[in-house]
Amino acid sequence: MPTTNYDLTLTVVIPCYNETEFIEEILERVREVGLAHEIVIVDDGSTDGTRDILHRWEAEDHDDLRIIFHDKNRGKGAALVTGFKAATGDILLIQDADLEYDPRDYPKLIQPIHEGISPVVYGSRFLGGPRKAMNFWNMVANKGLTLATNILYNAILSDMETCYKVFRREVVEDMTIHARGFEFEPEVTAKILKQGIRIYEVPISYNGREWDEGKKIKWTDAPIALWTLVKYRFVN
What we know:
The chain has 236 residues and is α/β, with parallel strands linked by helices. 38% of the residues lie in helices and 15% in strands. A seven-stranded mixed beta sheet has the order 3-2-1-4-6-5-7, with helices on both faces. Helix 5 packs parallel to helix 8 and helix 7 packs parallel to helix 8.
């Protein structure tokens, strides 16, 4: 029988780039849930004033907050690698800095890890949770990449590209991640599945933002993600 361990600590890792509009609200929402023992924000070379907000917080010396600055924009994957290295929690949860994903889903995301069901949990946008309809072609790309993941790695995921990826720290702490951009999602998924870990999925809510609201992922990221999936099927 799975054992329940509620002593595990949670680190929320937030990569951010040019998020002055949302960074203060997302921090407030994460704190309101009251589950994070540590919040690590990695600013990936913002140029819009985000760094000014983060420097102010840094000067205020918040006990639960660690802030790391990249000297230039390196990409989401690079920011997450930095955040993982800095994290001290038993559980690591990825939180985008925009408001597409709702921290109120944290309890259901971390419950399977606390109960020992799986060391990795993904929050799926396609398992019936409430969501704002996403762009049709974005959905096609997501479904296609998830299907490719399932075929290549003998899995049954419904949402490989989700932001909400949650891990026991030991799953990723010694993992070499080469991705510097959005290809982080397929690389880390491939390497988890190659360890023989069955990823547990739970339904989440989703409020996708539009291109004119600052959405950063582009259609050109899809073929890069597909190549990443194929590559790591055959190499480490």
